[in-house]
Automatic annotation (TrEMBL):
Keywords noted in UniProt: Activator, DNA-binding, Transcription, Transcription regulation
Protein name stated in the entry: MerR family transcriptional regulator
Protein's UniProt keywords contain Transmembrane helix: no
Any GO molecular function: DNA-binding transcription factor activity
């Protein structure tokens, strides 16, 4: 069985002109021709075309493709193994690229306009977009969410570094306070809870005491937030929730 140039072009998803060019340069010469001189392609020609398209997809120039395919000592199975290795490597590269683009899109959504390298430098192994989708779903229609987006969209790498440094410093001091056995209603604990509230207000959105209470309750109701704070020390999440409530009470809110 043989096929016309139009049929082969349709099978392969390429143009007739491309097949003509491959014939003219000797890369893919059809096995036969009709009495009228029209090209006819056999199954072996289709196999060669598939090899050509594999290497073209991988970015090989046509002259290198011809050299690879016309090597008399070449093993067809070796060709397939080489193509499989190259395609696997390309898939891995594209997967990494796709992941980088996805993170960049998420970062833009959260207003974090940093490269992946800069985000790692600022946030370490903490992913600032980890809860981006859930955050938008739960609070996307609130003014606090909109305000946070407006502010963070303007932040530079230096801004994020300052914010993270403040946060890390507060984490260290609060974890030490809890480890020292200071109760949540102690003025020192309430002062740190107030500092926590103001940090949110300074960097993200205005955080009234009622909203701060809600955040504190979320820190113990949501296992992920509990895990984050308890990573600073056992019981930190519950202690902070209680300190936030005591601080709100202290301010009559």
């Amino acid at each position: 069985m043989s096929f016309s140039v139009g049929q082969v072009a349709g099978f392969a998803g390429i143009t007739v002109r491309t097949l003509h060019h491959y014939d003219e340069i000797g890369l893919l010469v059809p096995s036969g021709r009709t009495h009228a001189g029209h090209r006819r392609y056999a199954d072996a020609d289709l196999d060669r075309l598939q090899q050509i398209l594999f290497y073209r997809e991988l970015g090989f120039p046509l002259d290198e493709v011809a050299a690879l395919l016309d090597d008399p000592g070449a093993d067809p199975r070796a060709h397939l193994r080489r193509q499989h290795e190259l395609l696997t490597a390309r898939i891995e590269r594209l997967s990494r690229m796709a992941a980088a683009v996805e993170h960049a899109m998420e970062a833009r959504t959260m207003g974090i306009d940093l490269t992946p390298e800069e985000r790692f430098e600022v946030f370490g192994d903490h992913d600032p977009e980890q809860y981006a989708e859930e955050t938008e779903r739960r609070w996307g229609n609130t003014e606090a969410y909109a305000e946070s987006r407006r502010r963070t969209a303007r932040y530079t790498k230096a801004d994020w570094q300052r914010m993270r440094a403040e946060s890390d410093d507060w984490n260290t001091r609060y974890a030490t306070l809890v480890a020292d056995g200071v109760p949540p209603a102690d003025p020192g604990a309430m002062d740190l809870a107030e500092e926590h509230r103001r940090h949110i207000g300074r960097w993200f959105y205005e955080c009234p005491y009622a909203m701060h209470r809600c955040l504190g309750e979320m820190y113990v109701a949501d296992a992920r937030f509990t895990a984050y704070y308890d990573a600073l020390g056992p019981g930190v999440a519950a202690h902070l929730n209680a300190a936030i409530a005591a601080n709100a009470d202290r301010h009559g809110a």
